[in-house]
Every structure is written in C-alpha cells, then in structure tokens.
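Section 4.2 – Deliverable D4.2 (structural model, holo form)

The reporting period included a commitment to supply a predicted holo structure for the target in complex with magnesium ion. Inputs used:
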Amino acid sequence: MDMENLHVAIIMDGNGHWAEDRGWPRSRGHRAGAGAVRRVVEASPRLGITTLTLYAFSADNWRRPAAEVATLMALFRNFLRAEVGACRREGVRLSVIGRRDRLSPALVRTIEQAEAATAAGRVLNLRLAVDYSSRDAITAAAALHQGAVPSREAFRTLLAHAQHGDPGTPDVDLLVRTGREQRLSDFLLWECAYAELLFSSVLWPDFTGEDLGAAVEAFHRRNRRFGSVPEACAAGPERETAAR
Ligand code: IPE
Ligand code: IPE
Ligand code: MG
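Output (structure tokens):
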C-alpha cells in the first residue's frame, strides 16, 4: 500500500444508537466511543495516515440535554489526561480545534497541557474538533481579513488562526462518517473541497482499526481528479497534440 501522508477526518457518529439498541443510556455509548478513538489512533500510522481529525463535539451539540453535554465534556477531559502519556511515547501530537471560550477553564487547561506535552510528536498529528463549527470558522477567518480577495493559500492561514489550527495542515483526503447518517453536519467544509467521502454503517463504538484499514483501502481505489482528467488520458494523444 502507498505510504502517503494522508489526512483522514472522521465524524464519529452513532454512539446514541449503539446505546439505545442495547436499551442503555446514551452516555454509555459515548464512553464506549472513547475506546474506538484509541483504536483508530493506534491503527493510523501503519495505514499511512499522518493527520487524523476527529469530530468530537459540534457547536450545535450544545443543544443536547445538559447532562449529556456534561458527560461528553468529562469524557474529553478524562481522555486527554489518560492518553497524553501514551501520545507522547508514540509520537502523537495532540491538538484541539474549535472555540475554547465556552469550555470550562479546567478543560481548557487540560487541552493546553496536552498540546504542550505532545508538541514534539511527528508520527501522527491528532486533531480533536471540540465546540467546532466549520461555518463559524470560515466567517471568523473572513473577519480577520482586510483588503482584496485573498488567495486560497492566504485564506487557509486565516482559517487555521480562526480555529486554533496549524496552517501547515493539508486538506482532507478521506472523510469517514460512521453511523446511520450521510451528511457533513458543519465539519471541515473548506478543507473537504476534494475529499473522498465514505459513509460506514458501523456505529462509532464498534469501529475498529480494521474498519479504518478498509476505508483507506477503498480510498486508494478511488480515482481523484481535482477537476482534471484521468492520468491515462492526460498522457495520451491529446497531450501530444497540444505539445506539438
Ligand atoms: C456522536 O454520537 C457523538 C457526538 C455527537 C458527541 P451521537 O450521540 O450523535 O449518536 P447518534 O447519532 O444519536 O447515534
Ligand atoms: C456530528 O454528529 C457531530 C459529531 C459527531 C461530534 P451529530 O449527531 O451531532 O450530527 P447531526 O445532528 O445528526 O447532523
Ligand atoms: Mg449523531
């Protein structure tokens, strides 16, 4: 398999259904979802993934019942605290994109500590999207800009600044959404301009490293064109004619 520098983004959906299918409270699904996060992080390096962006909590998820929101926030904090040591050892650089002003000061501190402790990681750039809205990030980036229409590259930098991101992060190559829905739910709208989309019916708590491997394999079978024509055609007679 090609060892490319892949950027894979995952909408980790289906925790609620997973729990409801078992007659359990939704919070149990969220807790089980943390196990799937560990599995995909572990599997990523051998699949050629160097950037992994996980959608953990959308700006619209504040609409959920307060108790569910509290469970999710506690899970993030526990996850960061529990995983920072392993991330450091494995060369995983952890960062969090999205707004921070609505998170608790304790969670913000934990995020900052995890980011600082793992900043030297070079094996995998693991980005968690928390209180994230792609539309809000795009409008915030637009507000940072003054003057004539910026180039795509210049806007990419503004967008990174608007969401605590790193301007060096490449566009998304493969977007996976688990669960039963097929929509983007305000995730990485700019960054996914040419992403391959893959919808998996596996519910997030059941998602394994093998499922991620199958998704990456399916990605390698896709024919990406970026608006051009397939390589075979580009190398064919038309190009020769044009060159003459
Ligand atoms: C995704 O699972 C986790 C978050 C949105 C935080 P859901 O809780 O949305 O699960 P479903 O969609 O109800 O199954
Ligand atoms: C998207 O899932 C957000 C996350 C997975 C964190 P939702 O479950 O919130 O999305 P909708 O409401 O079904 O679009
Ligand atoms: Mg959902």
